[in-house]
Amino acid sequence: MTEQTRHDEIAAGLAEVEERIADACRASGRSRDEITLIAVTKTYPASDVRVLAGLGVTDVGENRDQEAALKARECHDLGLTWHFIGQLQTNKARSVAEYADLVHSVDRSRLVAALGRAAIAAGRELGCLIQVALDDDPTRGGVRPADVLPLAEEVERAEGLGLRGLMAVAPLGGDPGKAFTLLTELAGAVRSRHPSADIVSAGMSGDLVEAIVNGATHLRIGTALLGRRRPFVR
Fold this sequence. Notes:
Strand order of the largest sheet: 7-6-5-4-3-2-1-8
Helix content: 40-55%
CATH architecture: Alpha-Beta Barrel
Structural class: alpha/beta
Number of strands: 8
CATH class: Alpha Beta
CATH topology: TIM Barrel
């Protein structure tokens, strides 16, 4: 595939996603300005990130530290906002704190402590979203809804961290609208105590409409923008 062909392919995907976002915003009485599109570039090369940046995309999401750290270095000149959206082991906290602006997957006290230490060592403040488990699948990560507020308090107290809101993935086979409604309710409870925690990260390629209708502020879109996953090649 030539560079121009790939550019055109990504531009077409972005146009289709933007049309879906615009339609959902009109249907729900929301402004497009309320929605941040995060391009999820896991398994895609840094050249795709550069194409997206050239098309006006400013937020990029990754879920594997080794891949994300490399791409963030290769694209450091683009001035992008980097989102770490995957499950995160505490031993990767130091690396992630070097390049990520926002971690979407904070779900336990040990990770809060590790990220706080790493952010201080890096001389940065690291934005954090509490990941909420909306199903009973432990492999997908997240804290139970009843434990969201206590963990939010821990993040708020941690030096080097900033509490920015909540994130969730819709349950497999479930009603995404119902799940995102619960997430938005929880986000409102957190925001009532911590006004700066105003992000609701919800919605991917298949359920972005339901996410927007139910209050999402940030969408995590990969396949609809970039096509089917392919092996990442360094």
